[in-house]
Structures are given as C-alpha cells and as structure tokens.
Amino acid sequence: MQFSKFGEKFNQYSGITQLMDDLNDGLRTPGAIMLGGGNPAAIPAMIDYFHQASQEMLTSGEWIQALANYDGPQGKDAFVKALAALLKETYGWEVSEKNISLTNGSQSGFFYLFNLLAGTQPDGSHKKILLPLAPEYIGYGDAGIDEDIFVSYHPEIEQLDNRMFKYHVDFEQLKIDDSIAAICASRPTNPTGNVLTDEEIIKLDKLARDNHIPLIIDNAYGVPFPNIIFEEVTPFWNENTILCMSLSKLGLPGVRCGIVIANEAITEALTNMNGIISLAPGSVGPALAHHMIEKGDLLRLSEEVIKPFYQQKSQRAVELLQEAITDPRFRIHKPEGAIFLWLWFDALPITTMELYQRLKARGVLIVPGEYFFIGQEDEWDHAHQCLRMNYVQDDEMMQKGIQIIAEEVQKAYQQG
Ligand code: PLP
Questions:
Q1: C-alpha 265 to ligand 1 mean position (Å)
Q2: How far apart are CA 98 and CA 256, in angstroms?
Q3: What's the CA-to-centroid distance between 220 and ligand 1, angstroms?
Q4: CA–CA distance from 23 to each of 39, 83, 311, 370, 372 (Å)?
Q5: What is the pLDDT of residue 224?
C-alpha cells in the first residue's frame, strides 16, 4: 500500500500508541499490574457522582439532547460560557467565550496547536516548539506533521533529602531565536510529577513575550480542575498564554474533551480546524461538565475528593517504594502533582527500555523513561535510568508491582 508522506509519518508505531496498546491489553488481561498508562483512578465517590449526574441528565433531557445533536465547531456554547464565567470569577482572568475552544481530548488539541504554529512556515523556514524541560509528556513526541518540530533541554537536578530530587528549568541553556514558534510545558508534568514554580512560569512568560511567541501550558492535571497538584502555586493565564485543560483526569477520559483557553486569534483558528477535521467536538463531556458547574460541583469535587485521593495514593506509593528499594542509587522525583512517580536508578547497567521488557514479562507494566526525552539532540545517561509508574492501582496491586520492580532492579544492578 502506498501511503502519503503524512500517511507514512502517522502510520509509525509510536511510543504513545504502544502505551495505549499496553493499557488496552492490560485492562483485559487478568492479573496484569498496570503501572503504565495514564488512565485515571476509578475513585468510588466520583463514579457514584457520575452515575447520579447521568441519571439526572437523562431525566431532564440534557443527556439525549447531547447525544442527538452536533455542537458548533468551537464546542458546546453553554459550557464554554459557563467555564469562562467560572475562570473569571475564580481567578479574575479576562476570559470570555471568545477565548475558549473545545477539542476531542486535549491530545488532539496539542496536535492542532503544534501544527498551527510549528513546522514549515509560509516563507519556507522551519519552526519548532521549545520544551524548556525534558522529560516531558510522551504524547507530544510524534504530533508534528513535519519531522523535527521539538527542541528541548536537560533540567538542573536539585538533590533533596530522603532520596528525592527535583528538576528545574536551566534558563542559562535555553536558546530562543526566530526558529522557535512557541514554548510548551506541562504543569504538573507528566511523567515526573514536577510542578514548575511561579518564578519559572513568570520567566517563561517573559521569554515568550520578549520573543513574540505564545507560552503553552498543559494543565491536564492542574487547577482549578482536576486539581491534582500538591504544591501551593499560582494559576497562570494571560493573552499570550495558551492554557490547555481536559476532562480526562477528573475521571472522564472516555468523553474525550479537551479545553483550550487562549486569545481570540488562536480560538478562531482552532474553531476553524475543528470544522474541517471533526465538524464539531463531542457534546457529551461538555454537557456533563456544564451540569457540574451549574450544580457547583466541579471545583468542589476536585478539591474535596480528587486531590486528597491522589495525594494520599502518592504518599503511600513513595512509602512502599522506599521500603522495597533501599539501594542509595534509587531516587524519586518529589511528587508535586499528576498521577505518576518518576523513579531514577542512577548508574543502572541496563536501559529502562530493557527493564520495561523484563517487567512486562513478569506482568508489570511501567513506561520506560527514554520516551519522554523528546527533542533532545545529545545522548544523556540519565535518560536511560528513569521510569514512570502511575500510582492509581489499589494497594495490593501496588505492593505486588513494586516488589517485582525492586527484584528486577536489584538483579539488573547485580548482573546487568
Ligand atoms: N497532557 C498531558 C500532560 C497528559 O498527561 C495527557 C494524558 O495523559 C494529555 C495531555 C492528553 O489527555 P486527553 O487527550 O485525554 O485530554
């Protein structure tokens, strides 16, 4: 079969496709210990809430109305307006319905944004998205229609007590010139659980403005929802910021709803792209989220249910790991948010790609760290020494999985 250039690029078996395949297979394989993909936890209180809300919406007719009608290409008006009002009221941001567009999951929002800004320009030049700190979200990696649309930088590593560490943006290294189309960072970061500090965000905002390029902040885990963030940091948006949100980590990945908060030009561009690519984004997620806003439940549940659930889970996972792996070469990135722990095995004699295979053979799925070093030109040992595990499984599964990781890591240190 002859595929186009686009076809060849998007027909590759990328890291993100492997991850989603593992997730899908694992969900159907009895006994598999799923510490890999980013499926959010089935939090009982949230499942009960969605059950009840769906019933209320079925009774009121909102549910069938969402199923039976297309929305406009910008996304459900009622939700976009209610969200704009909520953000204005909560943070004082000058946001109206002209600043919000919806996509079928934020993953497709990133595909739109990266290709809107980076790649071949009308004058024939080539622009890239600058990721100020790699490791960064695996899902960005293959999103460019053109090749080579990312450039990224190693972080500074701050060693912390208790065998923990934290990454920081190394501003000395960042080079911005006409070849950069935008800066992009996830906050909290998938895979590391890092949260860029207020100071780092202010510096990145200034860099972006000084260079007349947007700052894209991926807020899939951030405030005000789903609020899986354990540090006190200031939410950030202005006319030069493109803030991407999602309903997925609220517990609704199946509705595929991404939200982009940006200036009017970007909002209009995304609306036009939606029209061409998908006619309109899906209606069911925005209808449910609108219902949650109307009831005053969206922020309340994020603060009272979702955040404490994940915070407690992350603390427990750290405890289990530190007990099971006593080797001083093992460190954990300080968990500041998101639903993952980032484990660093310094001087590991095998790559984490190899470790992933050995763990998979024993029924434990994690994600090898190599995938997250997107846009790096040089080889870096550290990139082969880290792995990502989620901590959303129940305690028994976590204990079993961590025990197997501990055994395989010990074996690798002893025998290579
Ligand atoms: N951004 C980050 C940082 C993520 O972790 C994810 C999913 O795991 C996404 C974006 C995409 O999420 P979705 O397409 O479900 O909105």
A1: 24
A2: 21
A3: 6
A4: 8, 31, 23, 18, 17
A5: 95
Q: 363, 336, 270, 356: which is closest to 31 by C-alpha?
A: 363
Which of 39, 101, 187, 246 for mutating ligand 1's site (highest number of atoms within 8 Å of CB)? Answer: 246
CA distances 315 to 221, 228, 230, Å, are: 17, 13, 11
Amino acid letter, 321: L
CA distance 8 to 53: 43
Pick out the chain residues at pLDDT < 70.
23, 26-28
Please tell me the distance from the alpha carbon of residue 87 to that of residue 98, in angstroms, as a whole number: 13
DSSP state at residue 140: G
Question: What's the CA angle centered on 341, arms 325 and 244, to 5 degrees?
Answer: 175
CB atoms within 10 A of CB 260: 24
Nearest to 158 by CA among 126, 133, 131, 187: 133
User: Distance from the CA of 416 to the center of ligand 1, in angstroms?
Assistant: 34
Counting atoms of ligand 1 from 1, which one is nearest the CA of 190?
3
User: What size, in residues, is the chain?
Assistant: 416
Q: What is the pLDDT of residue 30?
A: 75
pLDDT for the residue numbered 383: 95
Residue 372 one-letter amino acid: F
- Tokens, residue 210: 């000084």
- The DSSP symbol for 383 reads G
CB 216 within 8 A of CB 236: no
Instruction: Provide the pairing of β-strand 241-246 with 215-218.
Output: parallel
Q: Give the DSSP H/E element, type plus range, for residue 330.
A: strand 330-333
Please give the pLDDT value at position 305: 98
Cβ 332 vs Cβ 344: under 8 Å:
yes
Q: How far is the CA of 328 from the centre of ligand 1 (A)?
A: 33
Question: Atom 2 (ligand 1): residue with closest C-alpha?
Answer: 220
For residue 34, CA distances in Å to 22, 27, 197, 259 come to: 9, 8, 30, 28
Q: What is the pTM of this model?
A: 0.96
Write down the pLDDT at residue 27.
Answer: 60
d(CA 275, CA 272): 5
Is the Cβ atom of 314 under 6 angstroms away from ligand 1?
A: no
Among 244, 248, 256, 392, name the best residue to mutate to test ligand 1's pocket (greatest count of ligand atoms within 8 A of Cβ). Answer: 248
Verify whether ligand 1 is closer than 6 Å to residue 38 (CB atom).
yes
Taking the C-alpha atoms of residue 235 and residue 77, their distance in angstroms, rounded to an integer, is 24
Residue with tokens 């450039």: 151
- 349 Cα to the center of ligand 1, angstroms: 32
